[in-house]
Amino acid sequence: MCFKEFNRILLYIDLKTALEGILGKTLYEGWQSVIDELLSRSALTTLEVMDALTALGRVLSQQVQNLPINVDTERGEVCFACSAVLFDVNFLGQSIGEELNRLKKLSPVNTALETALRLKPYQAFADIPEKPVELDRYFSVASDPSQENAVLQARQESGLLIEGPPGTGKSQTIVNMVGDAIGRNKTVLIVCQKKAALEVVYKRLAAEGLDARSIMINDINADRNTVINSIREQLDLLFKSPKRTDWIEKRKQVAAKITDLENRLDSYHEALHQQDPQIWLSYRELIAELIGINKDYQLFAAPQLRSVVSDCNPQQLMDLENECAPLVRFWLPACYENSPLVHLKAFSHDLATLEDFKKFFTYFLTVEQLRIDKLSSRARFEIDNPKPYQQWIETEGNHFLTISESIRSRLVKWLPLFKPNADTSAELESDLLINQLTLLQERLALLNESSWCDLSLKLCLLESDVLNDLSDKARLMVMPKPWYGFLSIKRYKTKRALLAFLALQGELPNLESIPKLYNALVFEQEYRPIRQEIQAICAKLQLPVPDNRTNLNIKNIVSEIVTGLQEVKKWAERIMAAPHCEEVEKSVLQSKVAFEHLLNDYNAAFERYESRKTSLEALLPLVNYFEDTLYGYCKTAIEKNEVSSLLLIEINRVLDTLEAYQYFRKRVPQLSAKAIKLFERLRFYQEDLNCLPVTELDKSFRQLLNYEAKQTWKTRIEQDNPVLLTNADEIQQQIESLATADEEIRELNNILFRHNIPVDKLASAREWEDITRLTGQRARRLREFVEQGEPLGLMSLRPIWLMNPDIVSRLLPLKAGLFDVVIFDEASQMPVEYAIPSLYRGKVAIVSGDEKQMPPSSFFSAQVELEEDLDLNLNTELTDEEQQEVLQGQWNSKEIMDCPDLLQLARSVLPTTSLQIHYRSAYRELIDFSNAAFYMNQLNIPVRHPLNTIKQAQPIEYIWANGVYEQQTNPKEANTVVQVVSEIWQQSSSKRPSIGVVTFNKKQADLIEKIFYEKAAQDKTFATIYKEENQRVDNGEDMSIFIKNVENVQGDERDIIVFSTTFGCNEKGIFRRNFGVLGQQGGERRLNVAITRARKKVVLVSSMPIDDISDMLSGKQIPTTPRDYLQCYLAYAKALSEGDFEYSKDLLNRVVGNSQFVIERAETKRQDAFLDDVEAFIQSMGVGYKRQSGNGVFALDFAIEDPATKLYSIGIECDAPINPLLTHARSREIWRQSVLKHAIPNILRISSHNWYENKEQEKKRLKTLVETVLTPEVSQ
């Protein structure tokens, strides 16, 4: 039984559970009731305690006295001695053990313990968090991208394991997680095994003003008044002061500004580096290739090609290039595009065939020219067969030359009558007229010519009806008169009328004249129709029409007409018999001269016919060479007496390209449509191409095609992404504005942390007053205060709690999900059983640690054996689902207890993320070995130095002590270590680095400490410095000198770490491979801890023969055992100290090879024409530089060395880098730059776009910076 009392206040009474096995259950419960009664009192004295115990047994004394050695008691008697035992021991576990027993009966559902028991689905790696809106980000402490990712990933319900290698800012990440939790109104429990780790986190919280929202408890009793009083004061201020809200609107405005600026910068960065789906290149890569082409490009521009290749991808472009380039030398002289030779057939390009074609073609052109010359004279017609024409001219030509004009005149008038009508079966009109006239002659012959008299000249003028009337009357009078005739009035009247007519005509009006009249009338009636027909025919034949008074001489007229018609008929037949009678008719009717012209035309037609015939004969052999269309066109032109095609002239003009053309055209069917189109567009630049040597055409064409393709790709990408054309000055302004806004938002987040207390969730001041009393009977113990304050809003007021696992179990109520998040720091130092109660109190677990560092010590502790006495009697009040989860949790309890520490458990149940930025080391060589051997080169290290500087500074200094290892110590090494420290302390106090001494066993540490005291006793100056360094505090942190063995240095860091490797050959010169904990399982983790403690330098004092430590180096193997790693590190340190950088790099590559997850980060020279061009300019300035300095996040394309300081003073990055951690502008443009400038003060970014478009301007900018930064000697 243990009582703890201070200032008469009972702080703690602990009844050991082991007594139950001694006393029995009944007696034990009686003891427990007495103790519980004592605990209910607010204050106790020793006397009161001993009085209360009299109910349980005999009290030997009422006052404190020595612990009795011999006491006379009877068997079974209980005695109480009032004695005190004073001791200092790190005692943990009983409260935890009790809670572990209680947890057997509780369901872990909806707690982090449920995750630890694997009752939830498990994923190995944390999801990459989506970028939250700016108002949902709550960062106040400076943070790198991997830390921010961890903070955002910690929001996931699955929990998170944060692997934080040395110097990566685990504590800083936890502070940001705390801020994130406060911003989202979440509660957080931070649990650390060691007080120092808790204090580091709390100091960082306090530095951000978060101590007002946090509670750290190291001692449940000593911290009571401090905690309760701070809450009283906070509540008093909160209830009396108005809530500040002015920051809310301002934060929204700044967040909106950040979102806009970051989106614009990210859009530019994404457009610069995103791979174009068509060309499989980013804009940055494309510009680099264009810069490379331009470097030696001396060809002409050919924009006409761009439309052809604009839709090609690189493979298609290469195919097109390989398709066309070998043919350019044949294509160029072929003049293939729009060549008239296309109208020729494809035929062999051998010399014989070409000569054959040229012979026939030239001859054809000659005769064609003669034919065309003949066509120049006028020709009214052409003939296809001259023979009929010639025969006709021979037989009839002279006749027409001698034809009389009268006949010509008649032909003019009458020839149409001799032409057939459309109805060829009908008789000619001329024949009808002749027949008609012949009939008229016959009718005239039948007339009684004697009947013609003078009256006939008058009768012919009468109208037909009058004539007919007179004829009827006269007939009546000449007919025999009947006997009664004298009585006929009609006869009388007729006679009178006839006599009157005769009188009127000047004839004798007597009866004797009437017969004469009658005969004249009859003659007129018979003659009149004949005369009228003759008159009509004369009119038709365009002859003089005979008068009506014409007598029978008309017969002569008719006879003449018939004779004339018959004569014209003969001439008409001659004309109609002539070939091309129309022209003959026309010329004959016109004149003799016209007919002579016709004969001349015939002769000309005969000549053209002969020329056509000759041309057709000359064309015939070309049927095998001309395309059908051209052949047909030429043939038609000849046959139609037309001018031959101009194509013949064009073909003749390019005849010297025939050989190349015929060769190339045979290759054309194998060409793609795009290749043919490309050649068509390339023809625009024939003059430029002709200037190139034939042997250079292939190469030049490839250059030209690649250049134009990349130009059109560049134009298209710029059109699709106009942001790429953003001016560099505008981008810089955006970056500066973003940096300012980022500072503002972090300050506003800090204000938010202090002022976003949900007052509505807090109870009234009166209710708080009751539980915040510091003294008096109603004063609460701290555990009571927490239990009663939680429903009053204590967790809302102070959402952040920091304590060790034991304080958690002793102080906080065992309530499932009491905190939204429970964070474990330095989890590799925490046994699993210590963490289980805290896991139960959190909904989500965040575990932080480094598996490559030391596990928890097993000395003086034993695990609670949960696997024993598992209580499988489930609570009947639980649902079936809850019972199943409890049962599963109990079965998994044994498995989780098999894990050596919480970190190992977390690796199997939580998704993992890693912190990837190493800040501690001032020289990357200090962390390179650990990075390669233990962290797969995943750490990004901002610092870098020239090799000469490394050689001079010796960040790792190897000192061969060659001491003797005896009685587990190495005195010579110990003295060397003290001497090394003494020399370092010769510096002034302002420049004096902090120092830690690490040995490989405890006895060596004790020996070195002893020698320190001995030297201090002998050297007052040394003693003074030793005292100062033992009390040294930097920035509120203990930086005093320490001398520790390798087991105890985790969590420490100093400027310089001095190692004593301790082991060596014994006095007989024998070296044994026994290295204590460093040679045992997990020894490499202890080594990793030790060698990563230094910020600026490691001094390695050693007596260990490196070659004898292990067989790894001699066998050229990769390290697998702890001593392999030890040997490799010592060899690395020695090589680096001696400036053997090649060997040190080889050792690093060897230890990297031990990982199956090797990340290739060799600093090989990347092929990049943009970098090559910039490098060439840097070389021209004559400065010392290194290409591709560093790697990963902090890679720089060039680092320029200042010869005065021997440090890199200028860093050059050719465009912003690509890295998963640099996706967003703040990480890329602000955080990265700020970290880099600690290593290299001047960072210049050169835009590939600007270098391509305005190279001279960019060169001037770079040169100006170099001249400004470097020393005058160099700039000159």
TrEMBL record:
<dbReference type="Pfam" id="PF13087">
    <property type="entry name" value="AAA_12"/>
</dbReference>
<dbReference type="InterPro" id="IPR049468">
    <property type="entry name" value="Restrct_endonuc-II-like_dom"/>
</dbReference>
<feature type="domain" description="Restriction endonuclease type II-like">
    <location>
        <begin position="1170"/>
        <end position="1263"/>
    </location>
</feature>
<dbReference type="Pfam" id="PF13086">
    <property type="entry name" value="AAA_11"/>
</dbReference>
<dbReference type="InterPro" id="IPR041677">
    <property type="entry name" value="DNA2/NAM7_AAA_11"/>
</dbReference>
<feature type="domain" description="DNA2/NAM7 helicase-like C-terminal">
    <location>
        <begin position="911"/>
        <end position="1103"/>
    </location>
</feature>
<protein>
    <recommendedName>
        <fullName>DNA helicase</fullName>
    </recommendedName>
</protein>
<feature type="domain" description="DNA2/NAM7 helicase helicase">
    <location>
        <begin position="144"/>
        <end position="271"/>
    </location>
</feature>
<dbReference type="InterPro" id="IPR045055">
    <property type="entry name" value="DNA2/NAM7-like"/>
</dbReference>
<dbReference type="InterPro" id="IPR041679">
    <property type="entry name" value="DNA2/NAM7-like_C"/>
</dbReference>
<dbReference type="Pfam" id="PF18741">
    <property type="entry name" value="MTES_1575"/>
</dbReference>
<dbReference type="InterPro" id="IPR027417">
    <property type="entry name" value="P-loop_NTPase"/>
</dbReference>
<dbReference type="InterPro" id="IPR047187">
    <property type="entry name" value="SF1_C_Upf1"/>
</dbReference>
<dbReference type="GO" id="GO:0004386">
    <property type="term" value="F:helicase activity"/>
</dbReference>
